[in-house]
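In the laboratory, one determines a bound structure by crystallizing the protein with its ligand and collecting diffraction data. In a computational setting the workflow is compressed into a single prediction: the sequence and the ligand go in, and a structural description comes out. We illustrate the idea with pyridoxal-5'-phosphate.
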Amino acid sequence: MKYLSTRGRAPELGFEDALMSGLAPDGGLYLPTRWPVLAPDDLVALSGLSYAKAAGRIIAPFIGDEIDADALDTMLRDAYRDFRHPATAPLIQIDDNLWLLELFHGPTLAFKDFALKLLARLFDHVLERRGERVTVIGATSGDTGSAAIHACMDRPNIDIFILHPEGRVSEVQRRQMTTVMAPNVHNIAIRGTFDDCQALVKAMFNDEAFRRDMNLSAVNSINWARVMAQIVYYVTAAVSLGAPSRGVTFAVPTGNFGDVFAGYAASRMGLPIHRLIVATNRNDILARALATGRYRVAGVSPTMSPSMDIQVASNFERLLFDLYDGDGAAVTESMTALSDGGGFDIAPDRLERARDLFDATRIDEDATLAEIARVHTETGLSIDPHTAVGVAAARALPQDPAVPVIALATAHAAKFPDAVERATGLRPAAPPPLAGLLEAEERCQTLDSDIAAVQTYIRFKGQPNA
Ligand SMILES: *Cc1c(COP(=O)(O)O)cnc(C)c1O
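The predicted complex, in structure-token form:
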């Protein structure tokens, strides 16, 4: 399989090079040059397979012959081995026609484990063959850092440095990172804000010499392999509820548009998806864009669902590229208008095409709490605020009674105990990955928000390519 850039001015790459480079040199995001086809017979053949086996069948065409099937199967088995549910991504019915797809049984209790566990193994596999190491650096305000650390902690060819703002992540979130004692894992608490952390990471990537010496790499959601890994659970969930003979609707709590784009990819591959519901919290740029065609940046306002508090949904660029039939110049024009003027308009005919599949709605904080309470009253289950946004969106929009609706449960309730307690009066019990966390030893280096200090530390602790 070949990959091209959404901006149309970068050479096509094979899977491994697209994996290792993340962002394309023209500033675009990589997409496959064509969508592999999931024929009805392929879908039928998935039923009864383990999650890891099904994943191998679904993603193999995206990789082509660059990684052999046995190696891929081993990586997949290994990636999903420590998920705490035998189904890996189980479906739970919560209403007549409404299901939860539980994506929080991985080691850090959020769906990001699905993609990052596989991504780290793919990275390591390629590095091993090439005889290279990488230094992964990233800034986190919460979920992504811990998922990246848990994915990389046992990888021999990766060092990982995660920056977080000192005193500004929750204690649970911090401890999920700082209690990992693997020698290749380095936590840095920055005396500053999340924006300071992000600015430091960006500055390190822009320092050519440092970038080359340390062979820097990122694991953020613009990497194609993260989207690819997420296609799998859309397919397995739909097959469980009757695909290919019956279509399904998905409701997806959305921030960066990465997860819901994976659903779009599954649809392009032939999975019978009736509707894709883009559910946002009050940071509703995507809901506004799909309603009006005007994509306009507004200020971010903090919510109970912090992983969806975003300004710019970077993966939306991938949808635009498809809506514009692969016209990189049109995408470049929109993205330039976004960075120069804070927004762009989607042509009406292209918007109509998006609306053929997507619905979108925004759920405010009160409705989020009300949904957590309702699910608890009706089923006894505790859901987290991100999940509640998706479930509430599914209920708020008119649904075809013949089509099952699957709401993605993206985090475990115990990760957001304050919001859940506010809604239900009960604090959710901590599952095994959180038990003992508050007593475990922590390791973390605190540094000033100073690029030289951070680079010196990373050079000292990391293992530069000699
Ligand atoms: C990251 C995250 C989201 C948003 O996913 P995107 O791919 O950015 O749209 C939703 N819920 C949780 C719990 C997350 O961690």
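Residues 91-106+225-424 form a domain with the Rossmann fold fold (CATH 3.40.50.1100). Keep in mind that any predicted model is a hypothesis to be tested, not a measurement.
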